Fold this protein.
Amino acid sequence: MMILGEVLAVLDVEFAVILPHLDERQRRLYLASEAEVLGHGRIAAVARLAEVSESAAVRGREELAAGAAPLRLASRTRKLHPRTLPGPGARQWTQSRDLPELPAESFRDWWKKNHS
């Protein structure tokens, strides 16, 4: 099956519009899906148009074939999680705070004794 110049022109425009908005994994999966639509052996053409390595498109095809699990929410929002407490002196406070002693009985036992 021969890829027509018109199809390549449409893909070139689509890639220019869509690819800048995708992360690396999404880009691989998208390129692999486009290559699958075009048919066997079209990874090289898709990779050339998208200006990525063929190995990235092949890896995307393998991920699609394996049924790659979606990313966990935590990994998608990792950039939003603080690594340390904000503000000056946060480290000193964390190292010097006093933790309360463990109670003599568990909450469950206390509750049974006082609310039965």
Residues 24-38 form the longest helix (15 residues).
